[in-house]
Amino acid sequence: MRAQTELDSHAPAAPASGAAPTLSELEIEAIDLFIGLIKLLGMPKSVGELYGLLFVSPTPLPMETLMDRLNMSKGSASQGLKLLRSFGAVKTVYVAGDRRDHYVAEFDLSRFASNFIKGELQPHLDSGLERIKRMEHLIQQFTPGERDTAENRLVRLRHWHEKGQAMVPWILKFLVS
């Protein structure tokens, strides 16, 4: 028997007249899975909810349906879809007779991961190097004993940074192949 998730509270036992349909167990499991993955990347839970529902949906869904099904505000849905589109994880498709944008999940997660690394991780690594350089300058003000300890820690920090930078091209190459 599966553990009850935080999302189960979003799914009423029986929809009231005119209420949004209950999330299926498959939808709940997919959403819960993607919430966990998205949180690892430091993104909002709503992004995982949106992608999870789109991932298992057999048809394109408009933002209003996503908002209703996930009990999500328009702001969260809009920002989440914008972020997912920027990473290539979702795209809009045309639905005849409906002027609204409809969304579908992209299944090429290597493109998503590649765009995330280039757009989020690499800038953090770049700014990290600048911070390390500033810290190296700032420790010059320390007493000799304090400076030795700080320098040893900065050597370690620089080493971690170099390892992270070295992994990025390898990860990108792995994702593309």
Automatic annotation (TrEMBL):
Coiled coil: none
Key words of the record: DNA-binding, Transcription, Transcription regulation
GO molecular function, one term: DNA binding
Keyword match Transcription: yes
Family label: Belongs to the GbsR family.
Family matches, as PANTHER family: HTH-TYPE TRANSCRIPTIONAL REGULATOR MJ1563-RELATED
Name by which UniProt lists this protein: HTH-type transcriptional regulator
Organism of this sequence: Chthoniobacter flavus Ellin428
